[in-house]
Structure formats: structure tokens, C-alpha cells
Amino acid sequence: MGGDEHNARAGSGPARLIIADDHDLIRAGFRLVLEQEPDFAVVGEASSGREALELCRTLRPDVVVMDVAMPGMDGLEATRRIKEEYPEVAVLVVTAHENPEYMLEALKAGAAGYVLKSSPLPRMISALRRLLSGESPLNQELAARLIQDLARHPTGPGAPEPAEELTSREREVLLLMARGRTNPEIARELVISRGTAKSHVQNIIRKLGVSDRTQAVARAFELGLIDSSGSRSERGKND
């Protein structure tokens, strides 16, 4: 996550956000709240999934705040397309659906996490900050369900090899990430500082070529670094 908070940003400065929602008032409300935060900069707005994809091609944001129910290309399809073309862009889904199965579909499409539309706006800000600092915006119960589902149904074959090999310590951290551990919990289990745990997580995300820890776990399953029991695979143990 770069030298600051987000792995996709080359340097310091506010995170670049796109807001995608087909309701003008909701976009305006999100913009009003987010632009009061010095670490966020809203660089574009989209009223459909296709528009969000086009804006990603021209603006290359750090994060897309993505509504799901939009006309034409919906938020799930837009998330898939954005992650295919720009895996470094993180997507935070905003949804009215509280069904965990529905949320899992969003995460499998490539979303880093989700917030409910009924949530207070400060919760969205908190979720964005957690995402950008290398933490997961997901609660641990849903993260565990996602991991189990990914183990049974990998997101797709042919994942590219990491640009750099993971170190032995990074593979230990990756295994704990797959078990839904937070950075403080990783630090306690490995008897390292929180800053060191965060650094390991950021290095894993960078090496696996993804935008967030949720997708890092998904990529690890695709690469065979973690097996279906949530353990290091033989490949992970031997390299």
C-alpha cells in the first residue's frame, strides 16, 4: 500500500474516489460527507455501472463507492469489469441488501467490502479508512464465510503468478488473513508489532497484485497457496 496508506497510491495525498449511484441526491450526499474529510478526494460521479467503468478508464481512482442496483450494467457486473481491467482499484459496495449470500456475491465479484445504505455515513468513512489502511471492512463472520466459499468454488483459473515470491513470514501472515484475523490479532499471534503486521499485509497485497486483503485471500486460493482447509498448501510449504 505505497508509502502511505493505500497500496495503489504512489505517494501521499488524499485517496481518489468515484461515487457510483443512479440517484442524484444520494451521490450528492455522499460527496458532501466525503469531501469534508481531508484524506478523501471525490474525483468523479457515475449514474450507472457502465459510466463507473468508463470513469475508471480515464480517472484511475483508488476506490469506487459502488451502488449495486443501477440501470443497464449493475454494480456487480461493473465491479467484475473494473477488477478485470484495473485490479489495483478497490471497490466498496453500497447495498440495501442484508442477505449474507447476496453480499458474498458482491465480494466474489471483486469488492473489497460493503456497507449497508441504512448505515450511518460515518460507518462508510470508517470502512473506507479501514480498506485504505490494509484492514478489511468485513466483519469476521462474513469474512470466514467468504473464505469457505472461495475454498469450495475458486473465483477462476489462470491467476498470474506473483511478481515477487512471498517470504516465509508473509505466508504465515497470509494464512492468518485467510482465517479472518485482523492486523492486531496477527501481531499477537506472531508476537510482532502491529506496524510490522500491517507492513506484511501490505506487501502481500502488493505482491499478489490485488487491491485489498479480501482479494488477496481469493488470489491465494487461485494460486494454490492455501488449501481448502485454510492451511498452507504443499506448494506454499515447499517454496
Automatic annotation (TrEMBL):
Gene Ontology MF terms: DNA binding
Positions of post-translational 4-aspartylphosphate modification: 67
Assigned keywords, A-Z: DNA-binding, Phosphoprotein
Domain HTH luxR-type residues, every copy: 159-224
Keyword Ribosomal protein: no
Gene3D superfamilies from the UniProt entry: 3.40.50.2300
Top-level taxon: Bacteria
Response regulatory domain boundaries: 16-132
GO biological process, one term: regulation of DNA-templated transcription
PROSITE patterns: HTH_LUXR_2 (PS50043), RESPONSE_REGULATORY (PS50110)
Signal sequence bounds: none
Official protein name in the record: DNA-binding response regulator
